[in-house]
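Long-time lurker, first post. I've been practising inverse folding by hand and with some scripts of my own, and I keep getting stuck on stretches where the structure tokens seem ambiguous. Below is the full token string for one chain I'm working on. Before anyone asks, I'm not after the true native sequence, just a reasonable design that respects the backbone. If someone could post their per-position residues I'd love to compare against what I wrote down in my notebook.
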């Protein structure tokens, strides 16, 4: 109910925008229980280097301590596999009919990347450099990835809808114009809502100066939505972390709780490096799907990923900590 209340607040706040009104008219708000869980995570060693080449048998996925049976497995953008009852695997074939059914194969058709670009008056000074950094990031995405570019100041604007043609997304980005006040958390919530409607693996990347002076929703409520929907949030802040302790703390909490990361990048070079780090993280991630085992807990369910094949190496797994199951009505 909390998520529905939050969405209602933001819809009211943006009632004057024609695009949102049209969207609300065309898409009534209904929530349904989705059994399949899509979980992306990375594995690094003690020096932060990505560990590649691990297989399904190397992992144990637990939900509230209950071992889960993995349905599909993929590493980066390699061919995904389906785990069979006899313990063997087979390539997961994705075709048009399967996509229309919205089954587990959707989780591995690249990554759906939603870029949320702060164009408020806080960004005036570095606007052009920020746009260039985002464009370079989009150019470097894998061809299997889809990308959407949203911009915001007081209102949210879709500069480019989700497309596989990365050049189209960059064209939309270049049309962005500077605005006034910053309603970051309103815009982030609306971006998450759009991303949640897309099947498969997705991430949201926020590029912002930090302060929010116009939102109607609380950042932790937005974080809870991302957490429950399983959408990692990566944040690149151009602000000095020490000069805006409140925003910096919120960014750290949002990214950590959703399985993403936060970067404080004041210079153009640091911003480029942050985008490169995100792209590297996406390319070195593992993604599994599973159908949760019977669990009476209808509240927050804790997810943990264990590397069982080489426990002595002290490998570090970064993943979202859990989710709340959704009830249909």
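-- Answer (accepted) --
I ran through it position by position. Result:
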């Amino acid at each position: 109910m909390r998520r529905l209340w939050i969405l209602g607040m933001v819809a009211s706040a943006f009632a004057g925008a024609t695009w949102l009104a049209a969207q609300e008219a065309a898409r009534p708000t209904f929530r349904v229980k989705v059994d399949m869980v899509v979980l992306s995570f990375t594995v690094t060693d003690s020096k932060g280097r990505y560990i590649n080449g691990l297989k399904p048998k190397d992992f144990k996925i637990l939900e509230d301590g209950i071992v889960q049976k993995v349905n599909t497995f993929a590493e980066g953008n390699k061919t995904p596999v389906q785990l069979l009852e006899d313990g063997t695997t087979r390539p997961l074939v994705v075709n048009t009919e399967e996509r229309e059914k919205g089954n587990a194969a959707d989780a591995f058709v690249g990554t759906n990347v939603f870029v949320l670009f702060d164009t408020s008056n806080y960004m005036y000074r570095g606007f052009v450099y920020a746009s260039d950094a985002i464009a370079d990031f989009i150019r470097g995405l894998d061809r299997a990835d889809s990308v959407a570019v949203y911009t915001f100041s007081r209102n949210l604007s879709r500069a480019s809808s989700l497309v596989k043609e990365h050049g189209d997304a960059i064209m939309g980005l270049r049309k962005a114009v500077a605005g006034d006040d910053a309603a970051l958390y309103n815009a982030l919530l609306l971006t998450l809502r759009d991303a949640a409607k897309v099947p498969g693996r997705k991430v949201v990347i926020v590029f912002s100066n930090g302060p929010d002076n116009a939102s109607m929703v609380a950042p932790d409520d937005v974080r809870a939505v991302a957490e429950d929907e399983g959408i990692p949030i990566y944040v690149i802040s151009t602000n000095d972390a020490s000069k805006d302790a409140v925003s910096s703390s919120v960014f750290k909490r949002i990214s950590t709780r959703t399985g993403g990361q936060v970067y404080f990048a004041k210079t153009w070079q640091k911003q480029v490096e942050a985008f490169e780090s995100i792209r590297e993280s996406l390319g070195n991630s593992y993604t599994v799907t599973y159908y949760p085992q019977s669990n009476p807990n209808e509240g927050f369910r804790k997810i943990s990923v264990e590397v069982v094949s080489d426990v002595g190496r002290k490998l570090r797994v970064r993943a979202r900590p859990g989710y709340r199951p959704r009830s249909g009505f």
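A couple of notes from the structure itself: The two ends are 11 Å apart (CA to CA). The first strand starts at residue 37 and ends at 44. Happy to go over any region you disagree with.
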